[in-house]
Design goal:
- The protein is an all-alpha fold and 103 residues long.
- It is 80% helix and 0% strand.
- The longest helix is centred in the N-terminal third of the chain and has 44 residues.
- It has two domains: 47 residues; 51 residues, no CATH class.
- The N and C termini lie far apart (89 Å).
């Protein structure tokens, strides 16, 4: 009778342990895969040295600021007329916003 009670009490605990053990391994495996993927992404993104990116950003910001400032002075409606990507685009957008809202 005592063995039967032990099996009745231990059965659900063992079933839970067996069921959850694959789930416990999954986050560790997912973390390892995520780390490998982010390391690969970092390698691909870091193609230009930071000085070149800063120079592109600064150049775009100056161009955007002058465009935004002239649009503001002419009382033109806000319209960002530049499309593209990268550091120049971010700089142009930031500069245009600063220039347009400066007057």
């Amino acid at each position: 009778m005592r063995i039967k009670k032990s099996l009745i009490l231990a059965g659900p605990a063992l079933l839970t342990a067996v069921t959850l053990s694959p789930l416990a391994a999954s986050p560790a495996q997912a973390l390892a895969e995520t780390s490998a993927a982010s390391a690969q992404t970092t390698t691909l993104v870091a193609s230009k040295p930071p000085k070149e990116k800063k120079a592109e950003y600064k150049k775009g910001r100056m161009a955007g600021y002058s465009d935004g400032r002239s649009a503001c002075e002419k009382k033109e409606p806000y319209s960002l007329k530049y499309s593209g990507g990268g550091a120049y685009q971010r700089g142009f957008t930031d500069g245009y916003n600063s220039g347009y809202h400066s007057c």
